[in-house]
Amino acid sequence: MLNNEWKNDPEYVALVSDLLADPSVQKLGEYTQHHNSTRLEHSISVSFDSYKIAKAHHLDYKATARAGLLHDMFYYDWRTTKFDLGSHAFIHPRVALRNAEKVTSLSPKERDIILKHMWGLTSARPKYRESVIVSLVDDYEAIREFFTPIRNKVSALIKNVG
Ligand SMILES: [Fe+2]
Ligand SMILES: [Fe+2]
């Protein structure tokens, strides 16, 4: 689940506000990503957490924030849609890149961040450290978002014990 910490970071908000205002980005809020989160919430989490890490490492946090937000711009349910041409892991970064380019112009680094965010599975190696950060944070968020409902259930249950 997404907390709203990012809203209290004016520098982050300024970096992504034009993207967030775009209807095609808002539309990501209509898709479930993992159990308890929409694709928009997931994308903001990945973007904001990656931005903070990139900033702490004196990397290009602007490109990280923007491309992180656009890394999953696809509009189908990945749990049910099957492709003839390849796996979801291979295809959706390419779909996302095409959709992202309709929203804003992308630098080579931003393109790499979007395209390589599944590199562990699709074997295309990232060219930039920022791409590695977004990819790792994406994995981490997927696990966290998947387990959050269970975690909440467990905390509710253990409160009643002892
Ligand atoms: Fe993805
Ligand atoms: Fe993702």
Task: Write a short abstract of this structure.
The protein has one domain (5-159): Orthogonal Bundle (Hypothetical protein af1432). The protein has eight helices and two strands. The protein has helices spanning 10-20, 23-26, 39-56, 61-70, 88-103, 108-115, 119-122, 129-159, and strands spanning 32-34, 37-38.
Question: What layout of secondary structure does this protein have?
Answer:
Elements: H1 10-20, H2 23-26, E1 32-34, E2 37-38, H3 39-56, H4 61-70, H5 88-103, H6 108-115, H7 119-122, H8 129-159
Helix pairs in contact: 1-4, 3-4, 3-8, 4-6, 4-8, 6-8
The structure holds fe (ii) ion (2 copies).
One fe (ii) ion binds next to loops.
Pfam families: HD
Domain HD: 39-142
Protein name: HD superfamily metal-dependent phosphohydrolase
Describe the structure.
By secondary structure, the protein is mostly helical. It has a single domain (about 5-160), classed as Hypothetical protein af1432 (Orthogonal Bundle), CATH 1.10.3210. Helices cover about 65% and strands about 5% of the residues. It has a two-stranded antiparallel sheet. α1 runs parallel beside α4, α3 runs antiparallel to α4 and α6 (about 110-115) packs across α8. The longest helix has about 30 residues, at about 130-160. The chain is globular, with a radius of gyration of 16 Å. One of its GO terms (molecular function) is hydrolase activity. This is HD superfamily metal-dependent phosphohydrolase.
Number of helices: 8
Question: Strand tally, please?
Answer: 2
Radius of gyration: 16 Å
Sheet of most strands: 2 strands, antiparallel
Q: What's the shape?
A: globular
**Any low-confidence stretches, pLDDT <50, length ≥5?**
none
